Amino acid sequence: MTLGSSGIKERLNIVITGVGGQGNVTAGIIMGEAARLAGLNAVMSEIHGLAQRGGVVSVDFRIGDVYGPIIPDGQVDLVLGFELLESYRALSRARPGTTMITSTERIVPSSVNVGDAKYPDLAALRERALSRGIRIYEVDAPSIALAIGSKLSSNMIMVGAAYGAGFLPVRIDHIKDAIRLHFRESLWDVNFRAVEAGAQEIRRLASTM
């Protein structure tokens, strides 16, 4: 049984979150195009903070029997996080049973760097989430991206993780075709490998839990 196979029937609700510059919106576009190629209905919306300054960027992505692009609070099936702290913040919209697949990347807010705020206790946030029945998987996307030869491919690693966990009801060929449509040819191979690596890593993590 895949991670995403229970409780998902007529619709699938995914929140993609991170900070500006991590490729969150691009990930949503690839996922949406892959869903379209698979013959599925998909809608998405983007919420930008101060993206150019490293602010939060959140994408609501929905597949199936849905029309409005905004996911109601408490109906999130998957939080796909590109930055660790923003992943935990997005759990305010989650329910017991929601899955969080997050990159381990940390981008410290400028307010922390200048001493105006303290970085939250991530261990405490994790324990609080687990006590709510949230399933948590941490993917070391930056290290995997460097290993395959492109530090900019972390977003496709996370798309691969969502696919490998069963939260994208498409074939991997649909994702690769979406990549072909969105990226120039010189970037196809590294992004294909990123998707495959992300899928492999989430399956490995699931096998240990």
Automatic annotation (TrEMBL):
Organism lineage: Archaea, Nitrososphaerota, Conexivisphaeria, Conexivisphaerales, Conexivisphaeraceae
Highest taxon of the lineage: Archaea
PANTHER family, alphabetized: INDOLEPYRUVATE OXIDOREDUCTASE SUBUNIT IORB
GO molecular function, one term: indolepyruvate ferredoxin oxidoreductase activity
Keyword Oxidoreductase (UniProt): yes
EC number: 1.2.7.8
Pyruvate/ketoisovalerate oxidoreductase catalytic domain: residues covered: 20-200
UniProt protein name: Indolepyruvate oxidoreductase subunit IorB
UniProt source species: Conexivisphaera calida
Keyword terms, alphabetized: Oxidoreductase, Pyruvate
ATP-binding listed as a keyword: no
